[in-house]
Amino acid sequence: MIEAVGLTKRYGAKTAVYNLSFQVRPGTVTGFLGPNGSGKSTTMRMILGLDRPTAGHVTIGGHAFRDLPNAPRQVGALLDAKAVHGGRSARNHLLSLAQLSGIPASRVDEVLGVVGLQDVAKNRSKGFSLGMGQRLGIAAALLGDPQVLLFDEPVNGLDPEGILWVRNLMKMLASEGRTVFVSSHLMSEMALTAEHLIVIGRGQLLADMSVKDFIAANSAGFARVRTPQTDAAQREKLSAVLTEAGGQVLPEQDGALRVTGLALPRISDLAHEADVRLWELSPHQASLEEAYMRMTQTAVDYRSTDDQLAGFAAQQGPGALLPDAAAPVPQPVPQQGWYAPPPPQPGVPHPGVPGSGPVPADQNPYAQPVQAPVQEAAPTPPSLSKSDDTTPEDAR
Amino acid sequence: MTTPSTPQAQYGSVSAPEQQWQAQTGYVSPVPLRRATLKDALASEWTKIRSVRSTLWNFAVMLALVLGIGTLIALALSRRDMPPGESAVALGFVGVLLGIMPVMTLGVMTISSEYGTGMIRTTLTACPSRARVLGAKAIVFAALTFVVTLVATTLVSAVLLFSLGGRTTGALWGWATVGVSAYVALIGLFALAVGALLRHSAGAITLMIGFVLLPLVLALFLAASPMHGLQDFLLEYSIPSQLGVFYGTSMVQGAPGGWEALGIMGGLTAVFLGLAFFVQDRRDV
What we know:
The complex is a heterodimer.
Chain A (H helix, E strand, L loop, with lengths): L1 E10 L2 E11 L4 E5 L6 H8 L7 E6 L10 H4 E4 L11 H11 L4 H11 L14 H13 L5 E5 L7 H16 L3 E6 L2 H7 L2 E6 L2 E7 H8 L3 E5 L5 H13 L3 E4 L5 E4 L3 H10 L6 E5 L3 H9 L75 H5 L5 H4 L11
Parallel strand pairs in A: 3-7, 3-8, 5-6, 6-7
Antiparallel strand pairs in A: 1-2, 1-4, 8-9, 10-12, 10-13, 11-12
Chain B lengths: L15 H8 L14 H13 L2 H24 L16 H25 L1 H8 L3 H35 L5 H29 L2 H21 L6 H10 L1 H7 L12 H25 L3
């Protein structure tokens, strides 16, 4: 059990973490999410007593980390895969850590086997890849058979087989009754690993809830409507009718329409009244990734801009690579990939923030499964049914 | 998977606070918990210092300088070159003076390489008591340096005495081996404290080399100026002349003896090591 109360950390004028309070309970994998620079690692370091909080405190099993009688036997941590002396062999690195808490050398060989590094145990860790470094760090965390485990970005640099292994390892450790706290910015990974989420942005708590609640509270579903592709007029007609009825309609690249703000039965009724045949009418629930993007898009510190190549402009011939600003063509939304609805309006309580409470399911027209309208709609060609992004992107 | 099959005897008995810890949490390791001690940290630091190449290289360079220069002197000179009353043992001074450099480098690296590589975060996560980590490092490094320097100075003294002859006393022999080794270990420890304070290898090593050589160089340039008091002070208390004290040679009259030299260096080291303990305990890593 990890308990943070009013945790605050300032570096000079910059506040890295502000008034963060949360609990991490044993028996489940708790995901710790936030964009780059949101204060995840700073929080991890404060939990481990490496950084002193400016205000507030954090305890593990009721003790401050620095008061634990034998830290590695109680708390295992992977902070940074490269936080090792590169000149030391993997085995000696682990041996020095084991000796620090009186763990016998035989245990070192055991964890080397667990993480699959037994063949390179004698090699200097300087030559390790990032993935091997992660495995070494996980081995160090497991060394003391601890009750509480913290992992900071454990799947960075791992191959797909390694990612699957870490995922199963986390779940297994939690099922043994341990407290497992995993930070990541890979939402799709957390969707498969964590049961509970703590989301921070700009050092402040955005959400502390189960994965299921998080999606329900933060996702905005949409309906995909497809009219016969041979008849563009039907599409225009339906689009106009739906907009008139109060829905937002966005064209997709392959000719389908993405409709928000209208329930599926209502779309079907409107299409029927307008005498437009439908080839597809399907509900789409946002994935965890979309929910996360929506929640954190106002708290992202580092955002990329388009590369205009303006610095090269003088060297190029006239007219080369100049964007055609005169023709504002409405950009179709991508068929696949994430789609973030507009951020919450100011004044409207943010659904994810504790206190404002989760949004009741009936406010979200797509939160509950809508079966009947799908059957009511015209039969969907099998070739189109595969374009369904209700499944998380990473479920490959 | 993560539990050893048999509880090890080394884990020892379970005390009350540890039982309380186990009672309030979900998973309980089948291996009983015991408090970590300085002894564990010493074993860990010994593993660390013996498992990096810089230890080997620095001590190899130190041995090569002390023994190599001593042997060269022994070959270049003959018994007739020795002034009466002078002991051949004193000629080991040059090698040891140069041998201090790799020792200081290693002293700095012992701690600053942990900061440089980020290993310090792993170490302090495995042992939250920063004083225990620094203390264990200091003890292991100082003991190892003392032993290696003792071997080097004993060998070079024997070589010089055997080939060049001359009279020697037990006291001079003792100062030129045990005394010098203790002094070198203290300088190394001072370098370790500076490394812990600066956390940067190159900076700390540069500072230490300046600390050893600069006062003497300054003193040479003060010869023509009216600052004879300062010049005498620098000549007397610079590291090379303090080291010379152990060989019975000193640059100025009335210079301090071996015990005083050890006391000065010991005091300086204690102050900086204390500062390192204090700062390290409060600093974010």
